[in-house]
Amino acid sequence: MKTRTAFAGVIILTALILLIWITLRTPEIKAVHREGHAARILLINPPLTARGALTWWRQNQAMLKAQYHIPQEDSDRVFYLSVWDFADGYKEEEDKDRLCFDDMPAPRNCIDKNWIMTVSRARNSKRIYVQAGTHTWVQSDGGEYISVADEE
Fold this sequence. Notes:
Elements: H1 2-24, E1 28-35, E2 38-44, H2 50-68, E3 79-85, E4 91-92, E5 98-100, E6 108-112, E7 115-121, E8 129-132, E9 135-139, E10 145-147, H3 148-151
Parallel strand pairs: 2-3
Antiparallel strand pairs: 1-2, 3-7, 4-6, 5-6, 7-8, 8-9, 9-10
């Protein structure tokens, strides 16, 4: 009986530690690569869920504008941001399907394609779209993000 109780205690303690670790890990921007009116943001410790990605965007969009000058709109108000997991750092392209950046020297100028989210605005639109995983949100006139499925 003591063995079962001790084993259950270890499992519960491990689960609590894992939950605390997941909750407290803070996404950190490691790099921003720009190409025209598009930008790619590389994160360490990215959000683990689609809703977490949307929350990260909402909490950081003012900082991204102030510190990195993104999103940068073109004359039609179009912009495109993509956010990627940078956990394994820069790598060589090799024979793999990797995302490579022309604004830094080869050979270690690529990352594995671990996409987290995209934030964009189409031509002459006032609406911003956020897509993470299989979820898509659109920004309402009041500034709130509404699930596309909720609008239907």
